[in-house]
Amino acid sequence: MYPEYQKDLEFCKLVHKKYGKSFYFGTKLMEKENRDAICVLYAFFRLPDEYIDTIYKDKKDLALEKLNNWREEWGKCYRGDSYFAEGDELKVLRASKYIFDKYKIPFEYSEAFISAMIQDTSKTEYQTYNELEKYMYGSASVVGLMMVYVVADEDKKQPALEYAQALGEAFQMTNFLRDIYEDVKERDRVYLPIDDMENFGVTKQDLLNKNLNQNFIDLMKFEIERTQDLYKKADLGLKFLPKREAKAIKVARVLYSRIIDKIEGANYDIFSSRLHLSFFEKIFWVFLTLIKRI
Fold it and tell me: What is the Cα–Cα distance from 259 to 276, expressed in whole angstroms?
């Protein structure tokens, strides 16, 4: 552990608590050492994501420049070369280097993630689900794969990886379905496969016009069924994790999948407001999960 680690860790915890509310709830159940590592990784994922979706969302050239700089600085930090990051970036890079080394997380996972973020600066739609899956590998699946390296016992890591990848995709698809209008309106991005939209007779203009017609509802039902299948597959991997960590992941999974329930409960109207769980709803579902009622 390096001298500034605790200070850097506290910053990463603040990032996780602010932006990853449902997942943060789940990680509170983990062993402290694992929980701290996941807070660091979450900050590593979040900062580049903020460059694209918030800080430079209207300046793609600056976002691309920032992401390329992040990739270069992270590579230098990981290799132990001299680098020039400062402020919040320095805290996250230093802590991430420590966590990657400690848990022997493959460097290529971070490369896949940063590549996906860079892709977001230029690519605005995906023709097929297979094409979208390739993007989600970097933007979401590697998140689950890194978590396996943190929480799984050595002899259980390999069998757990496939299911962790499914959970990452399920979380990402949940985000896509909840944020359809926000993505197309504010970022000019459509994450629903174009082939699926065409099959159900839904256009990008329909999304911009908030057309909550039967075609859109049928499309949402199709994508939700696909997402629920991913959650079911991911559940099969919990047996490969230590009991405490499995419970924490189950809580995060339950909270996230309740967003799907919210979408269905709103009759698929994701246009009127951004659907989310209240604090008390989270407490309720955590309680049911912990007493094994779901």
Answer: 6
CA dihedral 79, 80, 85, 88 (to 10 degrees): 90
Q: Can you read off the two tokens belonging to residue 290?
A: 């912990």
Residue type at position 171: F
- Other CB atoms within 10 A of residue 267 CB: 9
- Give the domain range for residue 54: 1-106
Element (H, E) at 135: helix 129-136
137 and 55 share a domain? Answer: no
Longest alpha-carbon distance in the chain: 59
For residue 261, give the CATH number of its domain. Answer: 1.10.600.10
Amino acid sitting at position 276: H
pLDDT for 22? 63
DSSP letter (8 states) at residue 190:
B
pLDDT tens figures, 12-47: 999 988 887 666 666 777 889 999 999 999 999 998
- Same domain for 97 and 129, yes or no, is no
Asked if 24 and 117 count as a contact pair (C-beta separation under 8 A), the reply is no
Half-sphere exposure in the Cβ direction for 290 (13 Å, CA): 13
CA-based radius of gyration for the chain: 19
Q: Is 225 exposed, middle or buried (0-12, 13-18, 19+ CB in 10 A)?
A: exposed
d(CA 41, CA 185) in angstroms, rounded, equals 29
pTM: 0.88
pLDDT digit string, tens, across residues 182-207: 999 998 999 999 999 999 999 999 99
Read off the pLDDT band of 289 (50, 70, 90): low
